[in-house]
């Protein structure tokens, strides 16, 4: 059995069960396993009061090596949830949540 097969058969179900237990308690969780270079499995679930850092971890886990995808999705999430990112040099490029729609 290779590492991907082991992950699918053994690790993923246990991680999913643990994350479901945490979720039932209102917790957020992110788990990522790289079973081969560039190949990952991930499981996550955000609780009702998940903070920005947990959302950032989830976005990063989903994006993998795609830095642009990570930053674009983070900017989109922050705009949609009206999270002010104007103090960030990088995020200023994407516009702040407190700016008018369509403006920079």
Structure description:
This protein has a two-stranded antiparallel ribbon with strand order 1-2. The longest helix has 22 residues, at 3-24. It has four helices and two strands. It has a domain at 1-48. Helix 2 (52-63) runs antiparallel to helix 3. The chain has 104 residues and is an alpha+beta fold.
Key terms:
single chain; 104 residues; alpha+beta; two-stranded antiparallel sheet; 4 helices; 14% strand
Outline the secondary-structure elements.
Elements: H1 3-24, E1 29-36, E2 39-45, H2 52-63, H3 67-80, H4 89-92
Antiparallel strand pairs: 1-2
What fraction of residues sit in β-strands?
5-15%
> Counting H and I runs of at least 4 residues, what is the number of helices?
4
Across the major sheet, the strand order is 1-2
Low-confidence stretches: 100-104
Largest sheet: 2 strands, antiparallel
Structural class: alpha+beta
- As a percent range, the share of helical residues equals 40-55%
Order of helices and strands: HEEHHH
What is the overall pLDDT average? 88
- Rounded to an integer in angstroms, the radius of gyration calculated over CA atoms is 17 Å
* Strand tally: 2
Shape: flat
Please report the distance between the alpha carbons of the first and last residues. Answer: 52 Å
């Amino acid at each position: 059995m290779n590492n991907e097969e082991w992950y699918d058969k053994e690790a993923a179900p246990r991680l999913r069960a643990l994350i479901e237990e945490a979720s039932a308690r209102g917790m957020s969780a992110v788990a990522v396993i790289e079973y081969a270079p560039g190949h990952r499995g991930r499981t996550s679930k955000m609780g009702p009061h998940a903070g920005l850092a947990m959302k950032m971890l989830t976005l990063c886990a989903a994006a993998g090596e795609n830095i642009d995808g990570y930053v674009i999705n983070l900017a989109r999430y922050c705009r949609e949830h009206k999270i002010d990112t104007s103090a960030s040099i990088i995020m200023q490029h994407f516009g702040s949540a407190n700016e008018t729609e369509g403006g920079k």
